Amino acid sequence: MVKSLYIHIPFCRKICPYCAFVRQLYCQKKVDKYLILIEKIIESKYKNNKFKTIYIGGGTPNCLTIKQLVKLLDCLANKLLPKYEFTIECNPEFVTRQQVEIFKKYKINRVSLGIQTLNKKIVKSIGRLHKRQDITRTIKLFKKFKISNLSCDLIYGFKQQSIATIKKDLDFLIKNKIKHISCYCLEIKPKTIFAQQNYKLDENKIEKQLKFIIQYLKQKKFMRYEVSNWCKTTKNQSHHNVLIWQTNEWAAIGWGAHGFENNVCYRYGGDILKWKLIKKTLTRKELYQQVLIMGLRLSKGLNLQNKLVNESYNFFKKELDSSSLFIKNKNTIKCCNINLLNCLLEKII
Ligand SMILES: C[S@@+](CC[C@H](N)C(=O)[O-])C[C@H]1O[C@@H](n2cnc3c(N)ncnc32)[C@H](O)[C@@H]1O
Ligand code: SF4
């Protein structure tokens, strides 16, 4: 039975110019109707399921009203296994004491904060609304309510960013004892405001910034356990994501959400209030590609004792073994330099 559940809340108070996620502006009536759709699926498709990990992502889940958050969390109240990880994504500027109380009551034990950068000028230029004080206040509030498994997202590659501004951002998080940091390289996807403005990425600068992040976080005793993710100890990893990368199975609910269960890849397309379930059964080759594309993102790679991993490796044995980036030990396969993962994956795609 599937062990991980992702729920997509595609609403935001403001649309960021770089964002290509499935999301739209918050509208109270729409959210109310949207939550009914989620509830219906939980009650029908996952009536008897309990999950090891649940992840509520967005959009901005915490732009919902308290009443709406309670409605959403109520549907998930008895859906957790005894040892669980329950994450919600939050934009720090909207976090209130009442929200944290509700999260605590409904057993949320991990929060992923979208920070991106703390530099005032850059924050303004990317259309974000938070101030440094919002982040400090939010971190304190979560810790006060003993939700101390906090993760922070940063983005590097914005025009005005430099190694100095990135170092300040990292120092701020480290000083605040954040134990999980995701650093994403800025992507300019079609149809975003930045793409329309012909925003150009400086590949050279970006490469140096990544190099700095890797070296600096290593120096600060963070482990890079995945391409864009660092943690202090394995305890602080995103168990939800690790489980997905390792097992290749997860349930998903919500407009634009992707899931993968029983070899079937599915996505909720259609209209925000009239979802259309689009399913695709993967061929063996596609399945094995997916296993490797996802699993080799992990620094420690994949375990060959897992039947699906073993089959995937054997299917692409010739292509993988011929790459100098690929390492096979007795029980594991991995990419020896995850910065160059795409060069390895090219061999199997
Ligand atoms: C689902 S998103 C949004 C979470 C939250 N609403 C926020 O914006 O803070 C999760 C993360 O993806 C990253 N992200 C969003 N757009 C990106 C882009 N164009 N390039 C790289 N990372 C991006 C951000 O770090 C963001 O926190
Ligand atoms: S980056 Fe986050 S807040 Fe901004 S539009 Fe995308 S999902 Fe919404």
What is the secondary structure topology, with strand pairs?
Elements lengths: L3 E6 L1 E2 L11 E2 L2 H18 L5 E8 L7 H10 L4 E11 L6 H9 L4 E7 L3 H6 L6 H13 L5 E7 L6 H13 L4 E6 L7 H4 L6 H17 L3 E4 L2 E3 L7 H9 L3 E3 L4 E4 L2 E8 L2 E8 L2 H12 L6 E2 L3 H9 L1 H5 L4 E3 L3 E4 L5 H5 L4
Parallel strand pairs: 1-4, 1-11, 2-3, 4-5, 5-6, 6-7, 7-8
Antiparallel strand pairs: 8-10, 9-10, 12-13, 13-14, 15-17, 16-17
The structure holds S-adenosylmethionine and iron/sulfur cluster.
Compact description:
The chain is α/β, with parallel strands linked by helices. Helices cover 37% and strands 25% of the residues.
**Euclidean distance between termini CA atoms:** 29 Å
Order of helices and strands: EEEHEHEHEHHEHEHHEEHEEEEHEHHEEH
Helix content: 25-40%
Q: What is the number of helices?
A: 13
| CATH structural architecture of the largest domain | Alpha-Beta Horseshoe
The total tally of domains equals: 2
Hetero groups? S-adenosylmethionine, iron/sulfur cluster
Shape: globular
Which CATH class of the largest domain is shown?
Answer: Alpha Beta
Helix/strand-derived class? alpha/beta
| CATH fold-type name of the largest domain | pyruvate-formate lyase- activating enzyme
Overall pLDDT level: 97
CATH superfamily of the largest domain: tm_1862 like domain
Low confidence ranges: none
Largest sheet: 9 strands, mixed
